[in-house]
Amino acid sequence: MQAFDYHKYQPVTRMAMPKRLWPNNVTNKSPRWVSVDLRDGNQALLEPMGMRQKQQMWALLVKLGFKEIEVGFPSASQPDYDFVRWLIEENQIPQDVSIQVLVPARETLIKRTFEALHGVHQAVVHLYNSTSPVQRQRVFNLDRQGITAIACQGAAWVKREADRHPQTQWTFEYSPESFSSTEMDYAVEICDAVLDVWQPTPKHPCIINLPTTVEVSTANVFADQVEYFASHISRRDSVVLSIHTHNDRGGAVASAELAMLAGAQRVEGTLFGNGERTGNMDILTMAMNLYSQGIDPALDLSNPAEIIQVYKTCTGLEVHPRHPWFGELVYTAFSGSHQDAIRKCLQQQKVNEPWQVAYLPIDPRDIGRDYQAVIRVNSQSGKGGIAFVLERDYGVMLPRWLQIEMAQVVQQKSEHDGGEVGSEQLHALFQQHFIVETPLQLQSYQLEQQGALYNITIQVADQGKTISLHGHGEGGLSAFVDAWQQHSKQRIFIENYNEHAMGMGTDAQAAAYVQLDVNGQHITGAAFDVDTMSASFKAILSALNRASLQKH
After folding, report:
1. All structural domains of the chain
2. CA distances (Å), 400 to each of 348, 405, 418, 497, 503, in order?
3. 199 Rama class: left (phi>0) / alpha (psi -120 to 50) / beta
4. In sequence order, which residues have a C-beta less than 8 Å from that of residue 305 and are 6 or more positions away?
5. pLDDT of residue 372
6. Alpha-carbon separation of residue 190 from 118, 210, 391 (angstroms)
7. Does the predicted model carry a pTM greater than 0.85?
């Protein structure tokens, strides 16, 4: 038998759903978000959070706008118990926030849970027991009736303890753990039995939470299960339908999104998907997915740097640079064609129009990112990206013909050195290759117009010796070229020329770029000066200097 034997596994059996409705539904608002970072996320850490870390995470979750936060498993962990007591005794829970605690269907643990919650203004008590065939048969050795009895007894104990604390606004939540691997008729049956115990009403609903405790199918199969459950459960108007998806197949976000189409109203998850095995559903990703479709995510995600810093401090985990929306590199383009498209779109994007920029699904500035990292240059980059960085950081607006030549310089550098070419290095390469100030240096010039012609007198330093040149032409540049041709006996033509202003006010400069044909050789030069004419003459001399260097 092969070590990698796919015959050991069977596909998940799909239900017959000939009239499923969810594929035609549209999400138009955010769900009720529930953070389980302090419980599900915390229990999955190699080193669980200490009190100070829990307090820091709690403060962040409240600041982000979570109104329901699962804070622990107080009946099973003394640190969790102590944290719940700190929240209550130190008045750390805002009036519009409900804490949630998890407890299995065991009487002693339920009592301990309510002890931990004594004095809380409002809270969700989350009861669970396992329901799938493998759990029933191989873990508990019970049939459906036996498992249902556990759930109903647990529900009764929860109700009894809640009745002893009437000053608290209680909400009950039940999870048929391993729901996604449970027969759907039985999932409905056991939840109906729990509802019979709790007797929820539209004014005082309870929560039924449907977890993919282990993700075993594609997202569409989970959506079918949720729709089936939603259409068969009794007291539907008295139930808030919640989901809790895990990421074993990498589809936790997709499963949650499709489950909302199928009727889910409430979503449990964690920041950056932290949790058991491959993790929980990543609330940040799903919330930003909604935001990118023009839907209010109902969370303040505008400061990812703070979110990442607190997350890393509290969990000891890193955020992958390619993490959706918040990763360091997700708004960065190295590809030349991508860079060119981004640059052109940003130039045309108007302030008050819908966002339409190629390769950027949202404006990075919305979540605290500027355009400094949007385009970065390596050996895969092209002329557009290089032009973008030089214009953004230095005001250097390369014409297209010079972009092509500059791209070749950068690619050679990146391939030789390996890795990224940073902004400063990019600017240095441009100056090194296209601004050559020796041996020819402009000292002064006098330009006079006589009718349609311009006469010029130029003083140029050539290796420390001053030479005087004279020429004429239909403009300043042609007069300058004529003067040099008479002196050098070279055949020179201006093939391309561009100029632009750099900056405003007294600090303004001019930039000039010229491409010469020198005796059949194409040479480019560039220069900066206080005025356009001086910059243009220096650009011509820069090109001539480059031609002289290439001859040697």
Report:
1. 34-315 (3.20.20.70), 336-434 (no CATH), 440-551 (3.30.160.270)
2. 18, 9, 26, 11, 21
3. left
4. 368
5. 53
6. 29, 12, 65
7. no
pLDDT in tens, 192-230: 999 999 999 999 999 999 999 999 999 999 999 999 999
Digit-coded pLDDT (tens) for 311-367:
999 999 999 989 999 988 888 776 767 777 888 888 899 988 999 999 899 998 898
Under 8 Å between Cβ of 484 and 496: no
The whole-angstrom separation of Cα 521 and Cα 500 is 25
Phi, psi of 474, deg, nearest 5 = -80, -5
- Write the DSSP assignment of 299-363 as a string of letters: S--S-HHHHHHHHHHHH-----TT-TTTSTTTT-B-SHHHHHHHHHHHHH--TTSPP--TT-SS-
Q: Please state, in angstroms and rounded to a whole number, the distance separating the CA atoms of residues 65 and 34.
A: 10
Cβ neighbors of 316 (< 8 A, separation 6 or more) are: 45, 46, 47
Q: What is the DSSP letter of 168?
A: S
The 3-state DSSP composition of the chain as helix, strand, coil percent (nearest 5) reads 45, 20, 35
SS3 196: helix
Measured in degrees and rounded to the nearest 5, phi and psi for residue 467 equal: -120, 145
Residue pair 54/83 in contact (Cβ under 8 Å)? The answer is yes
Spatial distance between the Cα atoms of 162 and 167, rounded to a whole number of angstroms? 9
CB 254 within 8 A of CB 219: yes
Residues whose CB is less than 8 angstroms from the CB of residue 190 and which lie 6 or more positions away in sequence, other chains included: 131, 144, 147, 148, 151, 176
Q: How far, in Å, are 498, 529, 536 from residue 505 at the CA level? A: 21, 14, 20
Are the C-beta atoms of 117 and 123 separated by less than 8 Å?
A: yes
| Cα–Cα distance, 471 to 319 (Å, whole number) | 65
d(CA 30, CA 28): 7
Helix (H, G, I), strand (E, B) or coil at 12: coil
Separation in Å, CA 41 to CA 5, 46, 74, 103, 496 = 32, 11, 15, 16, 61
Phi, psi of 72 (to 5 degrees): 155, -170
Rounded CA gap, 199 and 206, in Å? 9
Cα–Cα–Cα angle for 480, 484, 490, rounded to 5 degrees? 135
Six token digits for residue 338: 């991508």
User: Across the chain, which distance is largest between two alpha carbons, in Å?
Assistant: 108
